[in-house]
């Protein structure tokens, strides 16, 4: 794993574009059309106002509105989400001209009103409109139903009539609702509005849905029947635009005649707002989302991370489609709200459409892994497509990172299962990738794909030396042995290299320390459970479902997070290996010190005592949560007691080994 990580360091690249030079290559009238895809799945885990803010931020791009379309995939099939976007469509007719008139840079309404200090004559009016919209949407979500008082016309009532008693999130016909249409809808200043389309794909309990990959493939098909833009942007629910000129920045690459014609996509880094000062959960994932993609950019380009990525539509189509409306050169001449266009859109959004087609294998996003983004980009690069990592000084997109440890560990465990599905598939990066792309890029993909096997050495180092110490067994070279220096060099070298990269990336030492701590915690929880889950799934015992990471913020959790206090409030099995290791390391360290004081023999056990001591420093938040804290974020007593029992059991059986 360490060797594969060196591939990222062979040819790192930093890029910069000069937007002012774009006018020499293209005028606004020459800009390609842009389709934006936003995915959501559960109005209670992903609040509709969060999705609405993301949509409004991209609808307000500095881009010709007649060339811009926004498609929202509601995989939960919730009328609450549709209602939220009906409200958003009305508010957008005021928000977009307000942004243009005042040259607003932060075009996510929620972020703007929370942070903006510059006010204009109509700011209070727009803010009140936003608050009223927010109250209506949140009231509807809280009540779980939509009062007729909130419906402004018969068209809205007719749209909601599709939600019958038989309509469930897992079993329902497709819903495609045009909320704004360029050719008809204007803002309050008479300016053209971008298209806004709500899509809930058809679902059946008897057919696989393929999670987010399936939802994005439906958006690919529905958008092809309506606007068929040659450029596509995919975004997560909470990943709002932070720079209105981002599409123009992308065109600096796509329209550059010197650029490789096989350039398939431009990936922006995932950057999160609301991270506390020292990033206690390592939620920024600086190494994975910013440092390593820069290293891949010098090869054939970074992988797709599921959001903040501009694609050429052509990368998703392996050739002519059996449905003429899905061909790349298909021109839509009719209104997107016409009966003919809507009929085709509903047809391609139906759950039966993909039967006996190449969707998911040769067309669209690829099926077969929970990390559809990583798998798709890997297979695209195997076919010769290239990518670019664009990391401007002002982040193009900002998202929310989970603010409790359990959510983060669960999310990473899901990634681990998907990554192992790629690692051991017929197109494994370590074999197929190395040959199909190039050796260094193959190693980069292999490093990600085999990420969960870090759990093996981490688990061994968390338990074996400490149990050996409790049995007075020395398993490392003595301090006077020349080999001892090799261990110290490897330890300090590996940690020092990562620390240097963090510092060069503009991060503090405290953030690096918390990141390496979370790497250890992930290794004993997410990586370990992900590996176990994959093995169980492989032999047919278990199947891992897709769980949406909650974007709902609990006030008490938020308060603890901002204070830099770990939150362990959930009695989850994920915490058991961590707490068990914390108990064993503490006991072995104390026992080792006592033994050294009695026997005056430090040399033979020095390395094990050092390792246990290092683990204790890393585990300090765990000891606080297990013993000292009384708030709701403390470690559940049940987990603490089970961990002590497991530690005792391991100690009892350890003499058999040592």
Automatic annotation (TrEMBL):
It is a multi-pass membrane protein. It holds the Pfam family Cellulose_synt. One of its GO terms (cellular component) is Golgi membrane. One of its GO terms (biological process) is cell wall organization. GO terms for molecular function: cellulose synthase (UDP-forming) activity. Mn(2+) binds at residues 212, 236. UDP-alpha-D-glucose binds at residues 45-46, 75. Keywords: Cell wall biogenesis/degradation, Glycosyltransferase, Golgi apparatus, Membrane, Transferase, Transmembrane, Transmembrane helix. The keyword Coiled coil does not apply. Belongs to the glycosyltransferase 2 family. Plant cellulose synthase-like G subfamily. PANTHER family: X-BOX TRANSCRIPTION FACTOR-RELATED. Thought to be a Golgi-localized beta-glycan synthase that polymerize the backbones of noncellulosic polysaccharides (hemicelluloses) of plant cell wall. This is Cellulose synthase-like protein G3. It comes from Vitis rotundifolia (Muscadine grape).
